[in-house]
Structures are given as C-alpha cells and as structure tokens.
Design a protein that fits this description.
With 627 residues, the protein is of the alpha/beta class. The protein folds into four domains: 15-229, 3-Layer(aba) Sandwich (Rossmann fold); 242-321, Elongation Factor Tu (Ef-tu), domain 3; 327-438, Elongation Factor Tu (Ef-tu), domain 3, CATH 2.40.30; 448-626, P-loop containing nucleotide triphosphate hydrolases (Rossmann fold), CATH 3.40.50. 28% of the residues lie in helices and 28% in strands. The chain contains 17 helices and 26 strands. Strands 7, 8, 9, 10, 11, 12, 13 and 14 form an eight-stranded antiparallel β-sheet that branches. Strands 2-3-1-4-5-6 form a six-stranded mixed β-sheet, with helices on both faces. Helix 5 (117-124) runs parallel beside helix 6 and helix 13 (510-529) packs parallel to helix 14.
C-alpha cells in the first residue's frame, strides 16, 4: 500500500472512532450564582470545543458584559439571551455539544431561579447525569434541594455534586466534607443511588479537567474525568422491545410499514410482536431503514417495521415484544410538575401526550403536593406554578404505558392546555389504578336512539351560560314551558337547585366550580341518553369546563346559549342581593367581581337581554331548535 493512502486512512479511522464514541447527556443545575454557566463555559474553553469566531465573540462580550475585569468571563458562552447577559443570570436552558477523545457530550445548562424551575425540568427530562452546583460559601440551599428532587423525579440516577468556589473558602476540606455529607443524606432520602462529590473552582479551573494541587486532600476524579468514565444504566433496556408508532409508512399499495424510534429493547425479523392497545399479534417481517434492511435494531434507532399480517395499527399505538408487552390502562397514579401560570384544577380537561399518542385527560384527585425542601406531603386542592403533586389521572381512552422508572418514553408525559396549546405540566407515571381494569361499559339493548324515538324528538343539551343576574334561569324556564306545551320531553338543571342536593358539598372556589360543572355535565349527558331535551342553567364561568361538557355529547347535540348581559346591568338587577354582598366583601370568589367570567368564543346562540325581552329571546331558542 502506498504512503499516499496513509493519511486518508488515518483520518477515516479517526472519524470512525469519533462516530462510535459513547454519548452522555448531562445537565448542570443548582441555585442562583452557584457557577453553572462558568463551569460549562470553561469546560468548553479548556477542551477546545470553540471555533475562532466564538473565541473572538467571547473576548468581546467579556469586555462588554463580563464580571471578571480584563479576564474572560466563561459564563457568557452559555448565557445566549441578551437579558441573561445584562442580568448575569441564566433564564432559558442552553444546550451545547462538545467532545473529548473518550466521549461525546450534550450538556444542558439550566437556570437557577425558582421561577424558571419548569425550564430546568425540560433539560433534566433527557439527561443521564446531573451536575449539581453548590456554592461552598452557602452550602445546600432550597433551590439545590428543589432541583435535586426534580432530578430524582425524572429518573436521573447519577449525580455529581460540584462544590464550587472552593478558592473563596481557602480550599478548606472541612467545608467540602460537610456539604458532601449533607448532600449524600439528601440523596439517600430522594433515592438517588450514585453520588460523587468534587471540590472545585470553576473560575480558576481547579479540579475541572485534572486534579488540583490546591486540594491535595482530595483523591477523587476531576469533573471531566468523572464525565468521561461514569457508567450510566439506561432504564428500559431490560423491559423488552418497544416502538411507539410515529407514522404509518404507505408509499404505494405494495408496502405498509410502521415507522418510529425504538424506545427500548431490540427487534429482529421473525420476532413475535403485539400491537397495543388492540392486543393483535403478528411477527416482524422486515426491519427497514433509509440505508437498507437490518438484521437487528436497538434503542434510539429510527426504523420502519413491516409485519407478517395486516394489523390495524395507527400513530400513537405501540408495537412491543410479544412475550413481555407493556400494560394498557386509562387511570394512573402519577407525579405532576405544574408549569402553567394558571393553577391546575382537578376535573379540568387537558390534552395528555405520552410517547406519540395524544388523548384527553384530567386530574381526578390531588392526593397531596410535595414540599420539595423536606419531601413532606402537604394537603392541596390545586397546584400552582412549579409545584409538584401526587395525583390520580383519568384518560378518555386506554394507552400503553410503563412506570417511568422502567421506561422514560412510555412513562413520561406532558399536559397541554386545550385552548392555548401551551405545555402546562410534565409528569411521570407510577402505576395503573387497580379499578381501571375492573370497570367496563355494560351493553344496554334500549339505547338513546330508541328512547328518543318513542318520545318523537331529538335529544339536546341547551347550555345557558352568563353572569349571575343575566337572566339565564328566566329564559331557560320560558323555553322549558313552551317546549312542554308543544309536547316535548324536557328537564331543567338549574345552578341554585342542584346545589341544594347533588352539589351541596361544593363551595365556590375555582376547584369547586370545576367539579360543579363536571357533575352537572355528566347528569345532563345521562338525561340526553334518556332521550330528553335538557336545559342547563349555570354561570359556568370557565371556557375549559364548557368545552369539557360539549365533548360529552355527539356533534350537534350541545347548544351553547350565551346570555349576553353587561356586568353593570346584571349588578343593577341584583335580584338576590349577591353583588351587594360581594362588593361589601361578604362573598368571596363571586363571578364578575373577584372571580373571572370567560365569554364564549363560538356559542351557537348569543342573546342580548338589554335590547330584547326574555319572551322574544326564549322564542329565538325555540326557533333554533325547530330549525
């Protein structure tokens, strides 16, 4: 072989070695000003992971925004937002890639402020290792404990405790030892199995890449040595093959495959599989990729499976090992980290996304919330921003799942607000509630159609909504009288009347209002199933609950009637004297005064009670039904 080929072969060998190097994902977290950005910035600088233009920009930014005088401010490498540079804090999660001879890394630098805890959880959700920064001068702070709790909740089993700024405490062993012992006690309480404490000064570089002569009493690994050598056990590999179906690949009539990324295990042609939630079984015919068929595929690979049999498999289904499939359920016990600006209210419907599947879901009960500083359970009726609760979840259809400790993909989920489409929570599934598998729909021979036919009418739910004093009950009562006179079978569910019986245990907090509407909507649905025209007269101030009620009914059966009365007019009427009491502070959480009313965005009928009489408005409702 000629010498001309030697350099290219060496380059090819180096590139091959780089491609096959292990990838470690880790986060840096902790309290404010513990030095997270400085640690990662200096690590990137020292491992020569920066291009010339990045170095030039760093030097320029250090002169403009730096906190180290004429020296380089390594934290600026991670603080990418202008607001971060101006304030000297991390706000968003900053991701960076770098590589050494032994390993490739993706690091997520997470914000330390409590108000950005949700950003930290985002970074932790995909990490294998957490680097928890502790300021040697301050010790373990509440935010250190908060982040450690989330690290534990999200299944990170390896933690490097970086006791930073040791140069500011004279490299005192006693300071380090006390912090390390305190954190190990916390880790044991949280169930974090593997903890390595390292004393360092990120700013000075002590114990960052190599061990420092400033701390001869420390004989453990440096930060980089630990990151290059830590062996991470990834949950999910031992549970069997799992493929959440992302796409049904049908380029022509001769090919039908199921595409997705392998979440766990290995798959080979001829392996027996089961498609969930249907439970249909088959065998793998081919494992297809863009580069051709494979003899086997494992976790993290994007593949398309073809099966020996024609199965009805759709996006969101899971193809799993036939000998060890995951469970299927629609009710769960779960931990929920709330990220929404508005509180989590039990009974309110959200979208839940797990794997590649999206379903409707609601929290049926908050069993307790967690004091992240002490891990003590606390009673709670709702969850505010950044709070963690242990909850019961109900889904409108069963989904394949596994406990988060066994499989992150099939055990982790997010909740999405159905109006704004914003992600409002992240959660982890613990187990299916036993009763979920014991409750089934009982077939009834006399159905809604038969009950409506004998009454000679179409079932409807007329949902009257508006402020107190708007005229809901008056108009609903007139509509009921006229329908009854015309021979229709009707029933009224009035807000005040229902609170004397079915809902007498509920107050007027936001949580109780949600439950109030949930119960009434379910009763209205039962009455509709009986073939009735049911008239519901409730303030029902929240759009989310009115949408939840609508979703219970078939298309066209739910008619939202908005009684459009301005607050000042409703308050002038004040038939029951409630507005006067609310203004005097004798009634709390009164809609329109200290509790909001969300105006319908697309009601079937909008009735203006200022310009038209109740009788004319009632006739408009009758005309709508007859049309």
């Amino acid at each position: 072989m000629s010498r001309a080929h030697e350099p290219s072969e060496a380059v090819a060998a180096y590139l091959q070695q780089h491609e096959t190097k292990d990838l470690l994902r880790f986060i840096t977290c902790g309290s404010v000003d513990d030095g997270k950005s400085t640690l990662i910035g200096r690590l990137l600088y020292e491992t020569r992971a920066l291009f010339a233009d990045q170095l030039s920009a760093l030097e320029s930014d250090s002169r403009r925004h730096g906190t180290q005088g004429d020296a380089i401010d390594y934290a600026l490498l991670m603080d990418g937002l202008s607001a971060e540079r101006e304030q000297g804090i991390t706000i968003d999660v900053a991701y960076r890639f770098f590589s050494t001879e032994k390993r490739k890394f993706i690091v997520a630098d997470c914000p330390g402020h409590e108000q950005y805890t949700r950003n930290m959880a985002t970074g932790a959700s995909t990490a294998d290792v957490a680097v928890v920064l502790v300021d040697a001068r301050k010790g373990l702070l509440p935010q250190t404990r908060r982040h450690s709790y989330i690290v534990s909740l999200l299944g990170i089993r390896h933690v490097l405790v970086a006791v930073n700024k040791m140069d500011l405490v004279g490299y005192d062993f006693a300071v380090f030892d006390e912090i390390a012992a305190g954190y190990r006690a916390l880790a044991e309480q949280l169930g974090i199995a593997h903890v390595q404490a390292v004393p360092l000064s990120a700013l000075q570089g002590d114990n960052l890449l190599v061990r420092s002569a400033q701390m001869p009493w420390y004989d453990g690994p440096s930060v980089l040595e630990y990151l290059e050598t830590v062996q991470v056990e990834r949950a999910g590999n031992d549970v069997g093959f799992r493929l959440p179906v992302q796409w049904v690949n049908r380029p022509n009539q001769d090919f039908r495959g199921f595409a997705g990324t392998v979440a766990a295990g290995t798959v080979r042609p001829d392996d027996e599989i089961v498609a969930l939630p249907s439970g249909r079984r088959s065998k793998v015919a081919r494992v297809v990729t863009a580069d051709g068929d494979l003899d086997a595929a494992g976790e993290g690979q994007a593949i398309t499976l073809t099966l020996a049999d024609e199965l009805d498999v759709s996006r969101g289904d899971v193809i799993a090992a036939g000998h060890n499939p995951p469970q299927v359920s629609d009710q769960f016990a779960a931990h929920v980290l709330w990220m929404g600006e508005q509180a989590l209210l039990p009974g309110r419907p959200y979208w839940l996304k797990i794997g590649t599947r999206t379903v409707s879901a609601s929290v049926t009960e908050i069993k307790h919330k967690i004091d992240v500083n002490t891990q003590e359970p606390l009673a709670a009726k709702h969850l505010e921003l950044n709070e963690v609760g242990y909850c019961n979840l109900y889904l409108d259809q069963p989904v394949p799942f596994e406990a988060y400790a066994d499989n992150r993909t099939l055990g982790g989920f997010i909740l999405i607000d159905r109006q704004s489409n914003a992600t409002v929570a992240a959660g982890t599934l613990d187990f299916a509630l036993r009763r979920a598998g014991n409750i089934h729909w009982q077939h009834l021979d006399v159905d809604k159609t038969a009950r409506a036919r004998i009454k000679g009418q179409q079932p409807r739910c007329l949902w009257f909504t508006g402020l107190s004093g708007s005229g809901k009950s008056t108009i609903a009562n007139l509509v009921d009288k006229r329908l009854h006179a015309m021979g229709y079978h009707t029933f009224i569910l009035d807000g005040d009347n229902v609170r004397h019986g079915l809902n007498k245990d509920l107050g007027f907090t936001d949580e109780d209002r949600v439950e109030n509407i949930r119960r009434v909507a379910e009763v209205a649905k039962l009455m509709s199933d009986a073939g009735l025209i049911v008239l519901v007269s409730f303030i029902s101030p929240f759009r989310a609950e009115r949408r939840m009620a609508r979703d219970l009914f078939a298309p066209g059966e739910f008619v939202e009637v908005y009684i459009d009365t301005p607050l000042e007019v409703a308050e002038q009427r004040d038939v029951k004297g409630l507005y006067a009491k609310a203004r005097a502070g004798q009634l709390r959480n009164f809609t329109g005064i200290d509790s909001p009313y969300e105006v319908p965005e697309a009601a079937e009928l909008s009735l203006d009670t200022v310009d038209e009489s109740a009788e004319r408005l009632a006739q408009r409702v009758i005309d709508y039904l007859l049309d």
